[in-house]
Amino acid sequence: MVSILASWLLSALAIFLVASYLPGIHVDNFVTSLVVALALGVVNAFIKPILVVLTLPINMVTLGLFTFVINAALIYGVSLVVPGFAIDGWLPALLAAVVLWLISTLIHFVMFPVKAA
Question: Residue 90 CB: number of other CB atoms within 10 A?
Fold first, then answer.
């Protein structure tokens, strides 16, 4: 339970930092980024697997890079639903998807380090 809350808080912090440094992404405050992190978590749990299966052929052709497009679409969709979170266009959403992936990967490796055999 503690790791889920820590992951949620760190994701919200990552979203807040991405909005602070990337142009075209706007978050009103940290509470809004908490709501965005929660909404992205729900969307990634329920809608993303369906989209990944539906786009499997193009995902295989692009060697998985189309997943960033799916993530950008989901982030953009969350921006349409959550008040106080706005994305100015498709390119900032794609850039945010890549940067959030990188940050969440680094957070995952710090929180759950790989143990040597």
Answer: 13
pLDDT value of position 117: 67
For residue 14, give both structure tokens: 């990552």
Strands (DSSP E) contained in 1-117 are: 25-27, 85-87
Half-sphere exposure of 19 (CA within 13 A, CB side): 24
SS3 94: helix
Element (H, E) at 103: helix 90-111
Q: Which residue has the tokens 């295989």?
A: 60
Instruction: Kindly report the pTM of this predicted structure.
Output: 0.91
- Angle, helices 2-21/90-111, rounded to nearest 10 degrees: 140
- Find, among 104, 106, 98, the residue nearest to 25 by Cα: 98
Averaged over 61-66, what is the pLDDT? 96
Tokens of 83: 């008040």
